[in-house]
Amino acid sequence: MQKYGELLRALLEKRGIAAEAQADIYLNPDYERDVHDPFLMRDMEKACVRIFEAIEANEKTVIYADYDCDGIPGAVILTDLFKKIGYKNFEIYIPQRNSEGYGLNLDAIKQFVEGKATLLITVDLGITAAAEVAQAEVLGIDVIITDHHLPRRSFGEGGQSSVDLPRAYAILNPKTDDYPEKMLCGAGVVFKLAQGFVKKYGEYFKIKDGWEKWMLDMAGLATLSDMVPLLGENRALVYFGMKVLRKSPRPGLAKLLAKLNISQRHLSEDDVSFMVTPRLNAASRMDDPLRAYELLATEDKAEAGALSDHLSKINDERKTVVTGIMREVNKKFETHANREVIVMGNPGWRVGILGLVAGKISDEHQKPVFVWGKDENDCIKGSCRSDGSVSVVELMTETKEFFLDFGGHELAGGFTVRNDRIHFLEDALSASFGKLKRTKPEEATAFDIKTDLGEVNMKNWREIEKLSPFGLGNPKPVFLFPGVKIEKIKKFGKNGSGEHLEIAFSDSDGHKAAAVSFFSNIDSFKNTLSEGLAVNLLATFDLSRFRGKEELKLRIVDIV
Questions:
Q1: Is the dihedral of CA 235, 239, 244, 250 positive or negative?
Q2: Quick check: 252 and 304 in contact, CB under 8 A?
Q3: From the CA atom positions of the chain, what is the Rg in Å?
Q4: Predicted pLDDT of residue 445
Q5: Where are the beta strands (DSSP E) in 449-499?
Q6: In this entry, which stretches build a coiled coil (predicted)?
Q7: Collapsing DSSP states into helix, strand and coil, what is residue 518?
Q8: 3-state class of 131 per DSSP?
Q9: pTM, whole model, 2 decimals?
């Protein structure tokens, strides 16, 4: 480990990496080594052959993708593949979040039959859709499921459980077979399909070896957006995906980044997660998810510009709606504060944004949260988020008699509730939580390294960046700056909103550094902040680039 600097060694050790060989692998992702053979996934051969047959016979294919920033990039990957081949007899179908909801639906399948489709490829959904898949197969449509969500389980006598899988033509899901990377996102699974197809048929279609790497921009975008751990193969997909994103020729991406004043060449994981993803997700939450797909798939610069403007506008509208709902949540919260599982809802709450609301409540109160509203068909639908203490899918499985439908993974899910059961749901889920409750994982140390403001420099930032890409499973290193003095507090924000803080700090050795905290005020921390106050600062390094100017600041994690 001596070949690495002191700071980098310390940060690697915090991540459990103490051997030099281990560090070499972690710090230097390798596509050939770290991206697994797609044919390790069960049914990959079968899926590739069926798609080849559809292309050769010019069958009609439907790509049925989820409406979020995992399903949509996955649909773009398949679009890119089919365009490269010259196959045009396919259509994209993305269900409306607020009227159709998540997953396959029978009305859409009937529509595909009328349109003479004979192959249906799902993206980021389908693993719990046994009835819908069975109906499609009966009506003459072969279904290839690509998904990463947990399958349904049924429990027999003696508590024995078994996995209930749809009887699809082929299923690609790392959680249902022996594929080595279990935590791929939905678009990650689709990337494996594209990778497998090119490996098997690339020569036949005159596709150059390695061409599929250009689609890593979409796989990387989705992997960051879907909050899967950036370890193993996912780390490689994002590492190389970010390289492709920074030089991607997609007009929609270029227009959106330009609108956000983000340099594409210097695009960061934070830019993707906090700036790009919310705008793509706004399409399904507030309008039509096809707009986000069109932005990523279009080759027309004028269309890309118009779509970029539209998504930014509806994202602003989304923020206003979420703020209003959270205001209502805070007024009602006292009556739910002592419950193990929180269930809140209102028939007037827009279904498309409830995942954001559930996430905010869960983050703030560290409990599993279920939030519901009514869709356009008067059905009670909602989203749930876990604080990590229990799987929301297990919770819903334990109380399945309350639900018409449900699905998801350990930390997040969606559901449809029986109208006559909604007011009893909180009691039922809290009772089930008592049975399933696990000991929470031991909380990670609040900081990685204790240091002083004199260490906030570009040399150390470059050392920290060697650990990237950052995200779930590989968070940015947090530094403790003890006993620093608040010199000046400044509010800033769009159009003078003052919704963010910039604080100038100094230490006893005369070192100074600026730190920012977004969507915060002086009362957001344990103690009210004031100039002259001595505090302990927890922060990450943050390099901002605005109009070509680089500035290294700290991003505040906490002030105590």
A1: positive
A2: yes
A3: 24
A4: 47
A5: 449-450, 479-492
A6: none
A7: coil
A8: helix
A9: 0.89
The pLDDT score that the predictor gives to residue 437 is 67
Average pLDDT over residues 245-273: 96
d(CA 403, CA 361): 22
Domains annotated for the chain, with CATH where assigned, are 1-26 (no CATH), 35-245 (3.90.1640.30), 337-436 (3.10.310.30), 445-559 (2.40.50.460)
Q: What is the 3-state secondary structure (H, E, C) of 392-423?
A: HHHHHHHCHHHEEEEEECCCEEEEEECCCCHH
List C-alpha distances in Å: 368 to 147, 166, 177.
24, 28, 28
The DSSP output letter for 242 is H
Q: According to the model, what pLDDT value does residue 388 have?
A: 87
For the chain, the straight-line distance linking the first and the last C-alpha, in angstroms and rounded, comes to 34
Beta-strand runs (E) in 291-437: 342-345, 369-374, 380-385, 403-408, 412-417
Residue where the block lists tokens 């003479």: 116
Residue 501: phi and psi, rounded to 5, are -120, 140
pLDDT tens sequence across 421-444: 999 999 999 999 988 866 554 444
Nearest to 109, CA basis, from 135, 71, 72: 135
Q: Look at residues 100, 98, 196 and name the one whose alpha carbon lies nearest to residue 146.
A: 196
pLDDT reading at 450 higher than 50:
yes
User: CA-CA distances (angstroms) from residue 107 to 95, 114, 218, 235?
Assistant: 11, 11, 29, 38
- The pLDDT of residue 442 is 47
- Provide the pLDDT for residue 221: 98
